[in-house]
Amino acid sequence: MRSRVLLSLLALLASLLAATTVQAQEGTEPSDDEVNRIARQLYCPVCPSTPLDVCESKACQDWRAQIRDQLARGWSEEQIIDYFVTQYGERVLAEPRRAGFTSLVWVLPILAVAVGLTIAVQVLKGWRRGSAQAAAPEPTLEVPPEMAARLEQELRELR
């Protein structure tokens, strides 16, 4: 019985320790790596084609600060990205989403490579067939001996 009470107290102590660890983690400041992991997925609203994690404009600094605040409040990566897309549109995404019309961005290059490879294989097969036909010996004509003699005589006369 005494061991049961001791085990119960240990279990209670372990659960309290785990709860304080979780609370301590929620209050910590997000690292620059965590902020940049999300910022890398967004583009600067001011500078064209510049990822948010490397841009030094005031707008990007503000956005990174906002990402840091949202992470500190417990927002997930998806929630933060969805927030920016809702506020500024899909143009802020470094990589288009793979849904709807934008899925063509992912499908068309693969389709183009497949079509190109198919055409290249067909062309190579055609060249191979053509060279095989060219390498085949041409049929020889058999000339009767009388005609061969007559041709030789005419050639001698022309010289």
Explain what you see.
This protein has about 160 residues and is an all-alpha fold. The protein has a domain at about 30-100: Cytochrome C biogenesis protein (Helicase, Ruva Protein, domain 3, Orthogonal Bundle). It has 6 helices and no strands. It has helices spanning about 1-25, 30-40, 60-70, 75-90, 105-135, 145-159. Helix 2 packs across helix 3 (about 60-70). The chain is elongated. The relative contact order is 0.06.
List keywords for this structure.
159 residues, 0% strand, Helicase, Ruva Protein, domain 3, mainly alpha
Q: SSE layout and pairings?
A:
Layout: H1 2-26, H2 32-39, H3 58-72, H4 77-88, H5 104-135, H6 145-158
